[in-house]
């Protein structure tokens, strides 16, 4: 016993130790990976923003360079260059007007000035520039000392900081006779860097010397300079000691664009998440330790039995022993019995599912061949039942055993079963050998098959389908004591029209009367009118069978606009002069009546004779389309919706009546389904549509309504009411009553009695 307890203690201690170490290491690794990933992503994100800023600046200066090139082409400037600044021979008015136009065409430029190297004078757009000519001596001297073609400076002019962009003229000559000066307003830097009042960091620009030229943000100049100094000392690091800094390489004019933000602000949320994660890990670890200590002993008692059950080593004798000694049973014995029952139920359900699966799969195949594949759900169920199809071309086969009725007198039911089984195997082998598809029984001695090929050519696919059908026929004739006839549909690609293809295969088989038995009968050979997808020289742009199928699908889906769109496809027949009017009239009449009767099978048109008279008077395709929309599509959808609404209301009313009659018991939804013979999904849908509530909501409301009546009309105490309404205790009932009504049941009874006394 002591050894067993020691093992328990050791197991618990090791478990807690491993859990604490794992959680700590995992938290640290997640934090490191998250911060590293966040830093790299932030670097990339800010670099993208800085690149856009850099591109804007470069585009701006290229715009000024373009203006300088245009300015250089002026004849007046050429004369100015040749005369070396002799004002009396220079047209200053022309130059000044050009400079003014240049100034007005470039954003964020206060003024533009032309500086003559010969006589060292300024010609500016502003009189203040000309008057303050001496203030520019320092910047011009600095520019000349750089021996470059252009430069950017920020200097004090008239005791105020001024940003100046200088360009030598002429550009493409060695001898320079003039400088062009652009005074850039501080708004330029506001536009490219922004004010960023809601950003905790700073966007900044370093000039070609590495000095801080401009910055915008909430960091002070001293904080930013200190961080940049630390960053430049160790450029291998992504961050400085206090700031997260990212910057681009120097641009073509030597400027460096960057962004800086305090690390505390940058990692605030990450640090909070880290601290919260460690706190939660600690709390969970403590809770796990306490729970493990409290429950280890009880879990240990039942562990061996649970292991036996999981490993399928349990025996029925243990259950009998538990029944013989009920006083020794604990909660683990009850759990064991329950799990044993669940396991047995699961095994039985698996066996039933294995038995039902082929039938369910076969039912899906028949439904697929009748309705086609239109929704994503249909294609998903194909994968669920492991049904493979090729998307290039398909055809449906209807295979019928010739003289099957007379065979019943010659062979037993067992023989006929094996005959049918053998034929289905032959069909399946031929399909799987040359393509993909399925086969299912479709009546006595008849089979329906879907055959698909990876063949994009309709003509070649039709030839292969016919050849494979002949292989099936010849094999069955050789190895079975009977023959078969095979009807073959048109070759199609759209699986939405599988139902039409199946009908075509069955219709083709009807021509066995003419073609004879033991034949492959293609629907194409007996088709009377051209349709889309056929091999005729001039097929119709509209297939009436497919159009009818599409409209029926849209009506059954209650999609008016889709049905109208399908109906409008009849306009494609407009202008085909080879169509016979009587043939087209008959086809349209047949299609409209077929749609009406297919959707509304249990009813017929209120006045078929009047409806037919109306169809006979339609003279244009527009009239037919309008009639199809107004007299067929719209009424049928409205009728389907009304029928659905009435059905939902009946189900909801029946559900409410059942709940009202059984609210003192346990009104289970499963019991209602059996009584009403309605699936649970339909009941839930009806309650949602009619009452916008769930089944449990209505049970609760019904019980609270009954409780209110008892509180008003009887002296029944709250404990008895709670017990009769299937609540575990009075406290639980009072809590739910207050949540629904707003006041406790005792207060509700008191208020109701006061009201009755007031009325009396």
UniProtKB/TrEMBL annotation:
<feature type="domain" description="HTH araC/xylS-type">
    <location>
        <begin position="653"/>
        <end position="751"/>
    </location>
</feature>
<dbReference type="Pfam" id="PF12833">
    <property type="entry name" value="HTH_18"/>
</dbReference>
<keyword id="KW-0805">Transcription regulation</keyword>
<dbReference type="InterPro" id="IPR018062">
    <property type="entry name" value="HTH_AraC-typ_CS"/>
</dbReference>
<keyword id="KW-0238">DNA-binding</keyword>
<feature type="transmembrane region" description="Helical">
    <location>
        <begin position="276"/>
        <end position="294"/>
    </location>
</feature>
<dbReference type="InterPro" id="IPR018060">
    <property type="entry name" value="HTH_AraC"/>
</dbReference>
<keyword id="KW-0472">Membrane</keyword>
<keyword id="KW-0804">Transcription</keyword>
<feature type="transmembrane region" description="Helical">
    <location>
        <begin position="12"/>
        <end position="31"/>
    </location>
</feature>
<feature type="domain" description="GGDEF">
    <location>
        <begin position="392"/>
        <end position="525"/>
    </location>
</feature>
<keyword id="KW-0812">Transmembrane</keyword>
<dbReference type="InterPro" id="IPR000160">
    <property type="entry name" value="GGDEF_dom"/>
</dbReference>
<keyword id="KW-1133">Transmembrane helix</keyword>
<protein>
    <submittedName>
        <fullName>AraC-like DNA-binding protein</fullName>
    </submittedName>
</protein>
<dbReference type="InterPro" id="IPR009057">
    <property type="entry name" value="Homeodomain-like_sf"/>
</dbReference>
């Amino acid at each position: 016993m002591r050894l067993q307890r020691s093992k328990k203690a050791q197991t618990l201690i090791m478990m807690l130790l491993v859990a604490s170490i794992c959680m700590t290491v995992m938290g640290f690794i997640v934090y490191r990976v998250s911060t590293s990933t966040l830093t790299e992503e932030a670097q990339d994100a800010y670099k993208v923003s800085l690149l856009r800023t850099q591109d804007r600046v470069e585009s701006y200066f290229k715009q000024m360079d373009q203006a300088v090139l245009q300015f250089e082409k002026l004849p007046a400037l050429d004369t100015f260059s040749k005369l070396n600044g002799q004002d009396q021979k220079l047209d200053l008015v022309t130059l000044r007007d050009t400079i003014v136009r240049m100034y007005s065409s470039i954003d964020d430029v206060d003024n533009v000035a032309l500086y003559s190297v010969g006589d060292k004078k300024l010609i500016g757009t502003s009189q203040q520039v000309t008057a303050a000519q001496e203030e520019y001596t320092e910047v011009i001297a600095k520019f000349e000392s750089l021996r470059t073609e252009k430069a950017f400076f920020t200097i004090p002019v008239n005791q105020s900081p001024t940003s100046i962009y200088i360009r030598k003229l002429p550009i493409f000559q060695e001898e320079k006779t003039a400088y062009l000066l652009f005074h850039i307003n501080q708004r330029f830097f506001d536009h490219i860097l922004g004010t960023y009042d809601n950003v905790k960091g700073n966007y900044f620009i370093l000039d070609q010397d590495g000095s801080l030229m401009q910055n915008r943000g909430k960091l002070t100049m001293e904080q930013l300079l200190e961080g940049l100094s630390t960053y430049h000392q160790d450029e291998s690091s992504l961050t400085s000691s206090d700031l997260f800094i990212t910057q681009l390489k120097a641009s073509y004019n030597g400027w460096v664009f960057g962004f800086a933000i305090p690390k505390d602000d940058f990692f605030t949320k990450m640090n909070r998440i880290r601290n919260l994660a460690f706190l939660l890990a600690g709390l969970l670890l403590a809770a796990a330790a306490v729970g493990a200590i409290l429950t280890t002993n009880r879990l240990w008692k039942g562990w061996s039995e649970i292991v036996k059950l999981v490993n399928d080593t349990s025996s029925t004798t243990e259950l009998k022993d538990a029944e013989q000694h009920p006083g020794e049973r604990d909660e683990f014995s009850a759990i064991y019995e329950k799990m044993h029952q669940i396991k047995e139920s699961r095994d039985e359900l698996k066996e039933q599912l294995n038995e039902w699966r082929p039938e369910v799969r076969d039912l899906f195949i028949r439904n697929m061949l009748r309705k086609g594949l239109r929704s994503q759900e249909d294609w998903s169920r194909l994968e669920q039942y492991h049904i493979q199809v090729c998307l290039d071309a398909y055809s449906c086969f209807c295979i019928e055993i010739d003289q099957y009725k007379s065979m019943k007198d010659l062979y037993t039911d067992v023989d006929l079963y094996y005959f049918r089984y053998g034929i289905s195997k032959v069909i399946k082998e031929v399909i799987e050998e040359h393509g993909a598809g399925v086969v299912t029984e479709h009546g006595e001695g008849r089979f329906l098959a879907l055959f698909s090929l990876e063949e994009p050519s309709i003509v070649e696919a039709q030839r292969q389908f016919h050849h494979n059908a002949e292989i099936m026929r010849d094999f069955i004739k050789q190895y079975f004591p009977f023959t078969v006839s095979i009807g073959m549909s048109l070759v199609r690609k759209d699986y939405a029209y599988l139902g039409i293809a199946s009908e075509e295969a069955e219709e083709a088989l009807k021509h066995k009367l003419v073609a004879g038995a033991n034949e492959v009968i293609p629907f194409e050979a007996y088709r009377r009118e051209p349709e889309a997808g056929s091999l005729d020289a001039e097929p119709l742009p509209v297939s009436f069978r497919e159009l009818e199928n599409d409209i029926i699908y849209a009506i059954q889906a209650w999609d008016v606009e889709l049905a109208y769109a399908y109906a409008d496809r009849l306009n494609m027949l407009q202008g085909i002069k080879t169509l016979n009017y009587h043939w087209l009239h008959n086809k349209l009449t047949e299609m409209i009546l077929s749609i009406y009767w297919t959707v509304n099978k249990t009813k017929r048109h209120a006045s078929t004779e009047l409806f037919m008279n109306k169809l006979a008077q339609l003279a244009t395709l527009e009239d037919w389309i309008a009639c199809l929309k107004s007299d067929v599509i719209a009424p049928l959808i409205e009728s389907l919706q009304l029928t659905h609404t009435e059905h939902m209301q009946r189900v909801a009313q029946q559900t409410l009546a059942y709940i009202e009659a059984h609210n003192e018991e346990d009104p289970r939804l499963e019991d209602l389904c059996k009584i009403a013979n309605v699936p649970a999904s339909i009941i839930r849908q009806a309650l949602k549509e009619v009452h916008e509530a769930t089944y449990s909501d209505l049970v609760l409301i019904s019980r609270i309504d009954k409780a209110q009546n008892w509180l008003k009309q009887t002296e029944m105490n709250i404990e008895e009411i709670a017990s009769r309404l299937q609540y575990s205790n009075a406290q639980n009932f009072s809590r739910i009553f207050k949540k629904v009504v707003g006041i406790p049941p005792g207060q509700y009874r008191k208020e109701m009695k006061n009201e009755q006394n007031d009325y009396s």
